[in-house]
Amino acid sequence: MSKIRVTKIFRFEMAHALWGYDGLCKNIHGHSYILKVTVTGTPIDDITDSKSGMVIDFGDLKNVVNNQIVEVYDHALVLNNRAPVENFDGIEEMFDRKIWCDFQPTAENLVIHFADLLKKSLPDHVQLYSLRLYETANSYSEWFAEDQL
Q1: For residue 89, is pLDDT > 70?
Q2: Are 43 and 65 contacting, i.e. CB atoms less than 8 angstroms apart?
Q3: Beta strands at 98-101 and 76-80: parallel, antiparallel or unpaired
Q4: How far apart are CA 76 and CA 16, in angstroms?
Q5: I want to staple 132 with a disulfide (CB 3.0 to 4.6 A). Which of 36, 49, 82, 119 is the partner?
Q6: Are 10 and 66 contacting, i.e. CB atoms less than 8 angstroms apart?
Q7: How much is the mean pLDDT over the chain?
Q8: DSSP letters spanning 34-77
Q9: Half-sphere exposure of residue 31, counting CA atoms within 13 Å on the CB side?
Q10: Residue 15, SS3 per DSSP
Q11: Residues with Cβ within 8 Å of residue 32, at least 6 apart in sequence
């Protein structure tokens, strides 16, 4: 049977700042992110399986991406933990969705991080093929499994 790619698109809002950066992105600012998730696999050919003909049920893919990424990062502030993050602790009214990360929260690093999260969460018969993370309407970063070999 043929290998097929399946893609689902997600949207979320997120703020970040780039610690130590020499441009405007050193300031806290937000984006309307669009994440395109593409997986690959062989459609299930067991006619007794309710998912027959599918690589993955779109609803199942939606649940994985929502649980691992959208519900965590939507309306969150993401900062590199090298920044003086303790200044935000205790200010829950405006900063209750803070994520401190071990990397600079650029589109490039976020797409790598998201790929790592999703690879661990997909069913065994489905492989992550690619991610495309739009930070703006004109700018995105991509991750492809084939580039990781």
Answers
A1: no
A2: no
A3: parallel
A4: 8
A5: 36
A6: yes
A7: 94
A8: EEEEEEEEPPP--TTSTTTT-SS-HHHHHHHHIIIIIHHHTTEE
A9: 21
A10: strand
A11: 11, 13
Distance CA 122, CA 64 (A): 7
What the block records as the tokens of 142 is 């991509």
pTM: 0.93
Q: How far apart are CA 33 and CA 42, in angstroms?
A: 29
Report the C-alpha gap between 75 and 52 in whole angstroms. Answer: 37
The pLDDT of residue 97 = 87
96: amino acid identity, one letter: D
Q: Which domains are present in the chain?
A: 4-148 (3.30.479.10)
Residues counted in the chain: 149
Backbone φ and ψ of 15, nearest 5°: -110, 150
DSSP 107-127: HHHHHHHHHHHHHTTS-TT-E
Q: 58-71 pLDDT, tens per residue?
A: 999 999 999 999 99
Please tell me the distance from the alpha carbon of residue 58 to that of residue 68, in angstroms, as a whole number: 15
- CA 131 to CA 37: how far, in whole Å? 5
